[in-house]
Amino acid sequence: xxxxxxxxxxxxxxxxxxxxxxxxxxxSLLEALEIKKVRIxxxxxxxxxxxxxxxxxxxxVIYQKEPLVPLADDECLPCCCAPNSDVDLELSAKGADxxxxxxTINSSFHQTKQEPxxxxxxxxxQLKQQKTKLSALQLELQEQR
Length: 145
Ligand code: FES
Description:
Blueprint: E1 11-14, E2 17-21, H1 29-35, E3 54-58, E4 61-63, E5 75-76, E6 81-83, E7 87-89, H2 102-114, H3 116-120, H4 124-144
This protein binds FE2/S2 (inorganic) cluster (FES).
């Protein structure tokens, strides 16, 4: 699912809770949510069965191919779509690996400044996660201004 981000990567929220920055155009929304340990049921993962049908509270998504499942205007199939803007879904964030919250913004910046030695020994995967987290925090700060 190739997609170009013009302004910024969309923020995905679940019932208002920011859960992830959608910054990998090769992923589906379902894959991104699963990485964050969001509980979402799926079967076909191709837009055929409707098992992953999810309500959109705000925002919009795009599909690489139109899904076969009939959808209301406020529904999406995360298995075969990507956010087209910041999006808020009616899924629960309970149990998800949430890193974006007002409480963690300041502490995360503080931790980054105090522990430079720990960053030197991070793996490429951890480094990518830290960059994603930093981007998310910067976007949150921009939104608050
Ligand atoms: S998992 Fe079948 S439509 Fe999404």
